[in-house]
Batch of 2 targets.
Target 1
Amino acid sequence: MPSRYSVNPSLGVRVKKLGKILLAICLLLAAAITFTIGGRPFHRPRARATTNRQFERTPERLARGRYLVVGLVGCETCHTPKDWNTHGAPNLPGMELAGQLLPVPSLPGTVVASNLTPDPETGARRWSDDEIARAIREGIAHDRHTIFPMMPYNAYRTLSDEDVASIVAYVRSVAPVRNPLPPTRVDFPVNYLIRSVPQPLTTPVSGPGPQATPAERGRYLAVVGCDCHSPEDQKGPIRGLEFGGGQHLKGPWGEVTSANITSDHSGIDYYDEALFLQVMRSGYVKARKLSSILPLGEFANLTDDDLKAIFAYLRTLPPVKHRVDNSLPPTYCKLCRQKHGAGDQN
Ligand code: HEC
């Protein structure tokens, strides 16, 4: 009588063969990934140890931090639940920076923008200043997991040390909100692949100095504020299409593709400074209503001076020929390799 534990010999051989084939596939895959994007996915992400530095909460920093968080850098787009039924998607009252499960169906898994308010149990009360600063510019969460790179920490890397200190000071000053949320769970294999994204910052970062021209100041602001307008593929921003539009954005605001904001004819060559300010303040280009994913509520807080600087910078960009028209049905675009309105005209 064969024992319960014996296996059909031919099955045994087949299982062994299959095992070998699987092993070979895994090794090949590992080699391919290591070759293309490095060995990082198999290790923990690159991270520096945090220090116990504390950012003094001066009135200047609180004001600057508020200006950046509520205005340009768009933390609230993800970390504050919004009323998507109103043009401009205002914040839900009493929920500033309280976090949310992101209402974006195309994400690989459950992606939750953390509760950043100083609530002791469900928020950031116990995280150190440097843990928050590291999360913003280096993509490592307080518990050292890789932050899903939808949070634009690679763009935020360019924020100056002083601006990050101001953002942290402001975030720590908002009212605590108890808002329990599930943890982020990113599907396999994306959860491994994203580990190569975070890069530690080990040298000081300064912003534009007092001598900077409007265009130089505008560049600093546009890199952290307008990153949705640079399309990306799996390897990051697509070279040659910077600010040329093409990021596909789908969620409770509808389905749109970000616009080309360079001065090419397919972009916004017809804008002047006055029209740019009017669009950023109203959410309308003349009679055309813009999607609420453009963070109008936030950009409305920007000073005229900063908006003019951003416009001056946009005018210095090389024109990118890339037609995106959200009023037309989506068709394949060979430039950004996705489907969007007028894609077939590129
Ligand atoms: C496009 C969406 C988006 C924007 C904009 C964004 N975040 Fe996040 N943020 C997230 C998501 C999603 C996570 C959590 C991801 C994860 O756990 O993998 C996160 C995580 C964090 C964390 C880490 C929390 C932890 O557990 O340690 C901090 C701190 C943070 N964000 C602060 C900010 C600040 C400050 C800003 C603005 C300067 C900002 N974020 C802008 C989406 C965003």
Note: Residues 73-75, 77-79, 102, 111, 113-114, 116, 127, 132, 135-136, 141-142, 147-148, 150-152, 156, 167, 171, 184 surround heme C (CB under 6 Å).
Target 2
Amino acid sequence: MRQLIMIIVCGFLSWQSAAQTLELRFDGQVMQLSLAELKQALPVKLVQIDDPVYHKTKRYQAFELTALLNTYGVVLDATKHELVTTALDGYAPPVPLSALASAKGYLAFAEEGKADFQFESVTLGKSTTSPAPFYLVWQVDAKQAAQLPWPFQLVKIEKVDLAQQYAAMFPKTTSTTRNAAAVQRGFQLFRQQCVRCHSINLQGGVVGPELNAPKNVTEYWTDEHLRGLIRDASSYRYRSKMPAFPELSPQDIEDLLQYLRQMATQKISKP
Ligand code: HEC
């Protein structure tokens, strides 16, 4: 009996320690990093975070995300890549690289003053859970915080090639495309704000209509009305299920239109 318990305990411990490594995937490489290895390679920072998951100010022991990426040689170009973080339950939100440029992301592994992987429990509806092993937090104000992913029980960080991940909706601009920068910015905005509801070439959400094939919206809406609709769909249709986007600047909306127009030249034929 005692032996059996030992086996169960050992099994549990090895499962736990397996889960407590961070998998880093990039450019065909896969690294399994233990906390000890991470601590050897990177400075531990104490960070104070206005945490929207706990709804209060928290202090964590953490690694700076950009330092981690630099240390292991993960090279990122915002127009070509994004980071996808994966949690134990498979939840996998992308981290837009524009966020890394404008905000400080940290990979927390414990609360300040606590042992490794020790966090106060998070309440989610009726259940509580620990954010361990890793929890991605951001040093930002509340408005920015709402735009960023805060994945906890994080076990994997992966560099993803956008042209592969979003094959059908990736704008194929080249160095000679006149408005390439605007188109790529529009694509990023589209992924952040629109793709959860709309597809392009049937890639993306289904809450709203497909916007490219067989007819691209810019072919049957005027620019002026598209601008108005994107800013505030309910000024066009009562009970619209599309949210208003007051935070998009006029430039953002122009970039979105440039992206949509580019995709009119890349339509899929029949599904
Ligand atoms: C929460 C889901 C949702 C999001 C997010 C969303 N939309 Fe929509 N959108 C809809 C729905 C639903 C419609 C269909 C008409 C309606 O309900 O108003 C629509 C309609 C449209 C139309 C008109 C299409 C047509 O053929 O009539 C355009 C263009 C459009 N959306 C663009 C965008 C853009 C650009 C974004 C991102 C900035 C966006 N939408 C974000 C749900 C969404």
Note: Residues 7-18 have pLDDT under 50 and may be disordered.
